[in-house]
Amino acid sequence: MKFRYYYNLYFSKSLERPTIKEEILCELEDGKLNKNLYILVLANNPKNNLEFFKVSYLQQEVYENQSFFVVGFAKNYEEAKELVLKITEDVVTYTGGTNIREYFDL
Q1: pLDDT tens profile 8-58
Q2: What is the pLDDT at residue 106?
Q3: Helix (H) or strand (E) holding 79
Q4: How far is the C-alpha of 64 from the C-alpha of 10, rounded, in Å?
Q5: CA atoms of 90 and 23, how far apart (whole Å)
Q6: Is the alpha carbon torsion for 11, 17, 18, 19 positive or negative?
Q7: DSSP letters along 18-73, please?
Q8: C-alpha to C-alpha distances, 5 to 39, 44, 78, 96, 97, nearest whole angstrom
């Protein structure tokens, strides 16, 4: 599994603290991340924008050879939904449009 990361990752409110980015990225790369955490990624299907799921899903064999462009992390399902809304609002604010992939320079 390969990960690329948005340079300015999004974190849900309950995960906001100074060292969280380094902690989460190190744990994810080592495979030791809290399995209940949600990861937000650009969808592999170019017709879709974002998707999110529990980090524990990454242990499934189907993800073994996949690459992900990670845009954020949330503590739970509700916060993941809120983070998608925040990202969408930022895209509209900064680009004047709704092209999420363009916002992330892809």
Answers
A1: 999 998 888 777 878 888 888 777 767 789 999 999 888 899 999 999 888
A2: 55
A3: helix 77-95
A4: 24
A5: 25
A6: negative
A7: TTHHHHHHHHHHHT-S-TT-EEEEE-SSTT--EEEEEGGGGGSGGGTT-EEEEEEE
A8: 11, 14, 22, 24, 22
Domain count, the chain: 1
Domain that holds residue 91: 2-103
> What is the pairing mode between strands 38-42 and 2-11?
unpaired
Neighbours of 100 (CB within 10 A): 21
Beta bridge partners of 28: none
Among the listed residues 33, 1, 2, the one whose alpha carbon sits nearest the alpha carbon of residue 15:
33
pTM of the model: 0.88
Nearest Cα residue to 58 out of 39, 85, 77: 39
Pull the structure tokens for residue 47: 């017709």
78 token code pair: 């509700």
